[in-house]
Design brief:
This protein is about 0% helix and about 35% strand. It is mainly β and about 425 residues long.
Length: about 425
């Protein structure tokens, strides 16, 4: 089945208060730039509960993509497809988190259809992140469960896992934010694993400097120990360290193909109103602290933790790209193909799962993270929209993004269990 709906090439650039919009203004080509100085005060608007109702995709509904691009339904009937990774041979590995399995999709020669659809591994515990190691000629497929990291032996083209998984990291914090993503650094020496917080805002914690603070700036303690962090291990799961801290829920991890920088796609905290706190996509630096729970977006102090950590106020790293609050930024990938126009190469794509806690919903789209000379400009652009039907109903919730070997972009959404292929 092929669906093509394109938007005009006209670009709208929204800054300041105008950048805090909702789904009604979303359309391919709309560019937003949110700066730290644009943020309202906590409580400027009431905090809302506005959960969307997912319905079957109406016959006339289709994603909107920019002029010159085409969106096609590649796969449907999947069980909550989440994160996706492209194997070196072109196979697409998809985590079906609720079903506890990883699926493999082999594409046809032209990439437009599914030639094989197999369960690679099942019986997993809320799997999300997937990574191949070594990246060029992998011998292993790593899977990040909610409480562990496991790996399966892998030979090029395997559609079924051989044998039981080997546990590489036996204990990751469980509960709370449950997704764990996984990537290897560009040199292949380190495995990064994201672990979200166990709470919204570390409620009830009155924290003095952590016992880990000398080696991990801003590390949390108590029930948030080793949470709201990106952790680092070697490929064998040893040499455990805290790589970066204060990242409330880094759902998507990705490594830029030319700079080698590691990036997080992050869900920030709720409860401060419609336009706080921005989600973000950012480079993550080893030893850097990104604020949670004491501060947000630089030295903005969290009112729930006022006066608790003055020692950290001027040590918060400001994220690169601020995204409309409550968008629920999930999967992240960088475009390393050749099929899109040249200006897309090296840019990022992030899946916005969509708000449940904003008076007028936001998210429910895929955005393009604009880069210049390998560095984010701070702007992001609507790339794939059209999943929202009205103020109460949606038919799609984007989760994963992946670039295929032929240069198309795949988008998974777990509302109706589909994967879409965007080509140029």
């Amino acid at each position: 089945m092929s669906v093509t709906v394109t938007a005009s090439a006209e670009t709208r650039r929204l800054t300041g208060s105008a950048a805090f919009g909702d789904w009604r203004a979303d359309r391919p080509g709309v560019v937003r730039l949110i700066r730290p100085d644009d943020l309202p005060k906590p409580g400027a608007t009431a905090s809302s509960a506005n959960v969307s109702r997912v319905v079957a995709r109406p016959a006339a509904a289709a994603p909107l993509v920019p002029s010159g691009f085409k969106a096609e339904l590649l796969a449907d009937g999947l069980s909550g497809p989440r994160e996706m990774r492209t194997a070196p041979n072109g196979d697409i590995f998809v985590s079906e988190t609720r079903a506890g399995r990883v699926r493999v999709l082999r594409l046809s020669d032209d990439g437009s259809k599914i030639a094989r659809n197999e369960i690679f591994a099942s019986g997993l515990s809320q799997p999300f992140g997937i990574a191949f190691f070594p990246s060029d000629k992998p011998q292993w497929v790593y899977v990040a469960n909610t409480g562990s990291v496991v790996r399966f032996p892998y030979r090029d083209g395997d559609l079924k896992a051989e044998g039981k998984p080997e546990t590489v990291v036996s204990e990751l914090p469980r509960g709370g934010h449950s997704t764990r993503d996984i990537v290897f650094t560009a040199d292949g020496k380190r495995m990064l694993v994201s672990v979200g917080s166990g709470s919204n805002d570390a409620e009830g914690i009155k924290s003095a400097p952590s016992e880990n603070s000398e080696t991990a700036l801003g590390a949390s303690s108590g029930y948030e120990t080793r949470r709201a962090d990106v952790l680092s291990f070697n490929p064998e799961g040893k040499d455990a360290r805290i790589f970066a801290t204060g990242i409330r829920n880094c759902v998507g991890l990705a490594v830029h193909p030319t700079t080698g920088d590691a990036y997080c796609s992050t869900n920030e905290r709720d409860g401060f109103g419609d336009n706080l706190v921005p989600d973000y996509v950012t480079r993550i630096r080893e030893g850097a602290f990104y604020g949670w729970p004491w501060f947000y977006i630089g030295n903005h102090e969290d009112p729930h933790h006022a006066g608790e950590r003055p020692d950290l106020k001027d040590k918060v790293t400001v994220p690169d790209v601020l995204i409309q609050p409550h968008s629920a930024s999930l999967g992240l990938a960088f475009y390393d193909g050749q099929a899109f126009p040249a200006e897309y190469r090296g840019d990022g794509f992030a899946a916005e799962h969509g708000s449940w806690n904003r008076a007028k919903r936001t998210g429910y789209k895929v955005i393009r993270i604009r880069m210049k000379d390998g560095v984010p400009t701070g702007e992001y652009e609507d790339f794939m929209t059209g999943f929202v039907i009205n103020d109460s109903e949606v038919w799609g919730r984007p989760v994963g993004v992946a670039v295929t070997r032929d240069g198309a972009l795949l988008v998974s959404e777990d509302g109706n269990g589909t994967i879409w292929r965007i080509s140029h």
